[in-house]
Amino acid sequence: MLKESLISEFQKIVGKDNVLTAPEAMKAYSYDGTTSWIHEPDVVIFPTTTDEVSRIMKLANAEKIPVTPRGGGTNVSGGSVPWHGGIVLAMTRMNKIIKVDKENLTATVEPGVVLQDLTLRLMKDGLFFPPDPQSFLGATMGGIISENAGGPACVKYGVTKQYILGIEVVLPTGEVVHLGGRTLKNVVGYDLLHIFISAEGTLGVITGAELKLNPLPLAKKTLCVVYDDVAVAGESVYHVLENGVIPDKIELIDNWVINRIEEMMPIGLPKDADACLLFEVDGIPEAVEKEAEKIAEITKKYGAKEVRVAKDADDANKYWMARRAGFAAVFGKAKTVFAEDVTVPRGNIPKLINRCKELAKKYNLEIVVLGHAGDGNLHPAILTDINNKEHYDRALKAMDAIIEGAVEFGGVLSGEHGIGLEKQKFMKKVTEPAVINMMKNIKALIDPNNIMNPGKIWE
Amino acid sequence: MKDLKELKKIEEFSNQCMKCGFCSFFCPVYQEEKMETSVARGKNFLVKQILAGQQEFTPEMADIIGKCLLCKRCAANCPAKTQIDRVVVAARAQLVKEKGLGAIKNFAFRKVMANRKAFGKYARLMQKFQWMMPTTEGKIKHLPDFVKGLGKRNFPSLSKTFLRDQVKPVYKPQNGEKPKMRVGFFMGCATDFVYPELGLKLIDFLTRHGVEVVVPEDQNCCGAAIYFSGDLETGRMLADLNIKAFKDLNVDYIVTACGTCSSTLKDYQKYLPDTEEQKERYTEFEKKIKDSTEFVIDILKIPPQDFKLRKEFEGKTVTWHDPCHLVRYQNIKDQPRAILKALKGIKYVEMPNADMCCGMGGSFSVYHYDLTKKIAGKKMDGIKATGADIVVTACPGCMINLIDNVLLNKMPQKVHHFLELVE
User: Fold this and answer.
1) Which CATH architecture has domain A95-215?
2) pTM of the predicted structure, to 2 decimals
3) Disruptive mutation site among A21, A24, A76, A81 for chain B (greatest number of B CBs within 10 Å)
4) A35 in contact with B at a CB cutoff of 8 Å?
5) What is the ipTM of this complex?
6) Is the CB of A21 inside 8 Å of chain B's CB atoms?
7) The CATH fold of domain B305-421
8) Any idea where the domains of chain B sit in the sequence?
9) Residue B266: which residues within 8 A CB-CB, separation 6 or more?
10) Architecture of the domain spanning B163-299
11) Predicted pLDDT of residue A142
């Protein structure tokens, strides 16, 4: 519990309406998008300016109160859960799109801007922000930057860090600094900008960002390619890429997901198929046509059973709706779901898929494979039930083994979700002690009192 | 262990939420308040806490579950298909069970609205005194300054003669031929007291199209405001009265000009049943209910191009506002648009946020008028963007709120029911 006098100090800074202390509100800020990481804060504060954030941080630092910045709370690693209580700094009311600069293809935003709101705004100017975390309906820019989020379009466009030119950060001491800038090239000293991107809110509070934008592609085309063997589908990914076509998305769904989709919203996917790959190509219309033809040709050559080309935008949308529904289906079918985020170099996707299949057999579990095949980022999902101890223990073992497999195949344990609370025990296993040490030293340097999102990344 | 009967009924819906938070994008209340207790995910989490015995119905909790428009925009877009409307209604019902309704609602719901005669009597009393209210324009009045606390609300005056005093029990088809079907007319309170001409218009329209219309005298309020506030007991009483009123009339359908009424009557089976017998009876009743918009297109099968525009609307630009109770509760969105697009003499422009709630939410606007105005403000932006002269809809509830906010925003638009546009 925080002292009454402190609460009234916070109220003086941001106004009474921007401070919550009711027990019900604390419960509502105790979770994120994960299933089981829950901890209540002592107070929720909604700053509306950088200056307010700075004043709150000064006070928190002096009193050594933990501060957990939180945007839409859509993250799936426990990252925005206030694990040590204290303050949740809810950035959702700092949500202005300050400027869209068509000439320089940039935008200046506050951290609470929701990605979908940004997308809709940019569309008016024929622009877009390419990173596409699938939580775009709720995820805020501050969180997207802090988690270095990515999505399906990573194959062609990369992840968040490639689209952040600069940020404004309030340090734990309350000092306001500007990292990076507004230019595409910038080599002035250490690249501190990229230490804050993916820091999961453990180094400071992002209060503004300069984004790099792209012009919206003029055309898009979707192909659905059907396979008898999910590993062959995995191989197809690099055959397409090595033949010179870079689709903006390559998504994989396995037999289990195909069948759930056909139950929920039948779109005529073959129920006996072992897997489907969804390709999307974008760009200028002529190129898009050619690239789609090329994908059809290559995938057929390398063992695809059938290639379906979406007739029009509505038809294409059907496939992408199905892909999203497939992900939701996973959660609907089990009490507890481990949604893994392992990522391997693309060439090793078939190996990782096969490993998942072996583990499913070995531990007698349902392991669903879907994810962003195009960038090697799979989300194998293990269906289990936290209340069934014996089953749950098997699931835990399988999860460990999947992560070990990913590392064995040259990959990492998290591609886009981050470490947060969920992946801490693996972090230690797969990261050199010297590297962890370096990270901890950086943390201590910037946040000497360890008030910024404590309890995250390291155990 | 406490008896959480009402919540137990919806536990499975509540468990479906996977906390993705996508609801935040669709929730009009969250979009204004930007806090987790406003949005479905937060409310659902707290309801689960009650179910787990870790949360009580505190005044804050009551406020949180009260602050929902039940517009169902989140539910319609939920990847996990969580029926949060049922969770919210059940939580309100549980609250009413535990803490009672409170004096004001108890009087309004149980002593006034639940009794047709009493409701009429009180409405007439108010009608007699409404001359005291200042006039905004025409038939629109607003609250006087001395009740400023409630905001300067504009509202249409209560009609001099209520619909109930103007209708006949039976209307034969106007062509004098054998009726092609027999339809019961459900008037609803707003049509009865505020827009009686709307009811007469519907009766006239139906009888001109060969339909026989019967108007049972002992029909009651549909119960929307009552059961959506958690008073399921009074809701069931009204459901039973309304079912009884139409039971022996041998009608093929029951039609209403109010989107909220049609959805409320259809959804007795969803929100109210306590027993299997009730479930069956309410489901049987649902099959007969048709909103006027779907009835004229889907049942009477009038081709949209056959509708004729009333002279006074010649040359106007119109736009359509989707009432929540039509677009999401009943999936009615194409029928009214088909009519408006086909009507010769007007130009139809689609509103950018046509399916967005107007902010009324029944009694929501009574308790959270400031939020209502903000949410309606976004609706007004959408209306402005169309450049329309007329906003068309099919729910008197929406009409009352749209009129208030058009006037508050000093906009020139007029608000009409689609029945008013056609001959």
Assistant:
1) 2-Layer Sandwich (3.30)
2) 0.94
3) A24
4) yes
5) 0.93
6) no
7) Rossmann fold (3.40.50)
8) 5-99, 103-156, 163-299, 305-421
9) B286, B289, B329, B330
10) 3-Layer(aba) Sandwich (3.40)
11) 98
